[in-house]
């Protein structure tokens, strides 16, 4: 990492299967993976942070495992626990007197295990949400559009990591299906949400979120420059006045 960055701290935490007298750590030096036999399934987390000037930690990444295997490298952590990764970010803007929220999703096109240290990603889908109501997080509306329209219909048994930058403290409840992630929607069984910040430029998760943010700005600017008219929407609900899907070629 470059010299101007504050030192990062990576911590692996987990709960044990009841009371134990020892904790075993098995290290695979070939793949850089730790295995924790006494860990309670799905209790293992990786957290990357740095110390703010105030002394409080700034969390850059918080990832949940689907096994008892982990790595201090966030990219390897994803590769060891998941088959696919997507990022979802929603930015709220003003357009022609309306509040709009632009949800953008990027994905790794092949299985994470197919790549080495350089993992590519590309645009999957964007949605424009018209007039999300006050008191509802537009990020969660965006999650529902991507998950219900682009993930759940595939009925894919593969393990999917969904990377977001909102609702960090609530994500464990969503992942355990103790709470819906939005309205009445619960996460599909094969899907796990992870928190990351686009300021974590050294990780795949941070880079994917940053690209989501940039793409949303590009789409908004394209709409402004070309003075696009909003389409007639017939999919309004109690949370917004409708949404439409945007093909990536439409704003290049």
Question: What would you say this structure looks like, in words?
Answer:
With 252 residues, this protein is of the alpha+beta class. Helix content is 20%, strand content 29%. The chain has helices at 74-81, 138-151, 171-175, 204-226, and strands at residues 9-13, 26-28, 33-35, 45-51, 57-64, 69-70, 84-95, 98-107, 122-130, 160-164, 191-196, 243-246. The strands form 2 sheets. The protein has a 9-stranded mixed beta sheet, with helices on both faces. Strands 2-3-6 form a 3-stranded antiparallel beta sheet, covered by helices on one side. Helix 3 links the parallel strand 10 (160-164) and strand 11. The chain is elongated and about 65 Å long. The protein starts with 8 loop residues before the first strand and ends in a 6-residue tail after the last strand.
Structural classification? alpha+beta
Q: Radius of gyration over alpha carbons? A: 19 Å
- List the total number of helices: 4
Taken from the alpha-carbon principal axes, the silhouette is: elongated
What is the mean predicted local confidence, pLDDT? 91
**SSE string, helices as H and strands as E:** EEEEEEHEEEHEHEHE
Structural descriptors:
12 strands; 29% strand; nine-stranded mixed β-sheet; 252 residues; elongated; alpha+beta
Write the layout of secondary structure elements.
Blueprint: E1 9-13, E2 26-28, E3 33-35, E4 45-51, E5 57-64, E6 69-70, H1 74-81, E7 84-95, E8 98-107, E9 122-130, H2 138-151, E10 160-164, H3 171-175, E11 191-196, H4 204-226, E12 243-246
Parallel strand pairs: 7-10, 10-11
Antiparallel strand pairs: 1-4, 2-3, 3-6, 4-5, 5-11, 7-8, 8-9, 9-12
